Amino acid sequence: MNLNRPLLILFVSLVSVLLWPPCSSSDLSPYFYALSCPNVELLVKGTVQSATALDPTLPGKLLRLLFHDCMVEGCDGSVLLQGNGTERSAPESKTLGGFQVVDVAKRLLEIFCPGTVSCADILVLAARDAVELTGGPSVAVPLGRRDGRVSSASKVLPNIIDTTFTLDEMLHHFSSKGLSLEDLVALSGAHTIGLAHCSAFSERFDEGPNGTWTPADASLDRGYAAELARRCSGGADESVTVGIEPGTSSVFDNQYYRNVLVGKGLLGSDAQLAADSRTRRMVEAFSGNQEDFFRSWARSFLRLASVGVKTGGEGEIRTSCPQRNR
């Protein structure tokens, strides 16, 4: 058989669809767009690559955006909706970013595959690509999510993880979404990339005259705490940011776990993972073996991306991610 490469790819996609077991309305499939929009993953990845080349902070923002989406109403793109009273308008969402990447990818897909690819799937793919582009593992994600029509600001605070939470409080939130202790430790590894505003860890310091910061959390490495105090004194608002991981905040690796073990986890919730015997063992294991961390990350990312999904006749396929269909 003498098929050129494009025809061969299409032939393989068709065979894959025919051989894949039929899905119920509640199932997702890695071949969901094989016929309706076969280039969806390439188009999303290209968008993320181009945007990251201009703004290297975007991968961390896309990961955080996905977490917020999935933890509140499920992975249904509801965090992308604009308007008064939406999740996006909540005070807890004001430091979120990466929306423009999803919007650009959606506009591109509407040209090639109009009315086909959900904003929820685009966000999952963009977050997956953000990890791969910064050195992390590539994860094959099943697709077929539909976009939610409901987005409520009042549901944000009760459903997201606060940086001041104890381990039990974090576990309670994760278990309510069907996620496990291992998922909590593995997904916390997302803190290996991105930036954090000083306000995200201000409770670990005392603020004195003229806004000067003094370390108040003995679990923080003294040198690291002094550097944070210098950077954030007078700037515990949303204008000052620091790398969420000292040294390699643009690379997705297991350095986060090594930092946590020596008191250089930036957030109070990071320190909890090293302080509690239930999680410290996994932190130590991931700190010493990046491949194990990547394998656990891939499993946990898939579980996160499956939380509360809408499929079949639920929700809608938006033509514009910030707005519901009319």
CATH superfamily of the largest domain: Peroxidase, domain 2
SSE pattern: HHHHHHHEEEHEHHHH
The major beta sheet can be summarized as: 2 strands, antiparallel
CATH architecture of the largest domain: Orthogonal Bundle
Helix content estimate: 40-55%
CATH class of the largest domain: Mainly Alpha
List unreliable stretches of 5+ residues: 1-26
Structural domain tally: 2
Quote the CATH topology of the largest domain: Peroxidase, domain 2
The Rg value, from CA coordinates, equals 20 Å
Number of helical elements: 12
Enumerate the strands of the largest sheet in spatial order, edge to edge or round the barrel. Answer: 1-4
Mean pLDDT across all residues, rounded? Answer: 90
**Rough shape?**
globular
| Euclidean distance between termini CA atoms | 48 Å
Structural category = mainly alpha
Task: Give the tally of β-strands.
Answer: 4
Instruction: Note the beta-strand portion.
Output: under 5%
GO cellular component, one term: extracellular region
Signal peptide: 1-25
GO molecular function: heme binding; lactoperoxidase activity; metal ion binding
Disulfide bonds: 37-113, 70-75, 119-321, 198-232
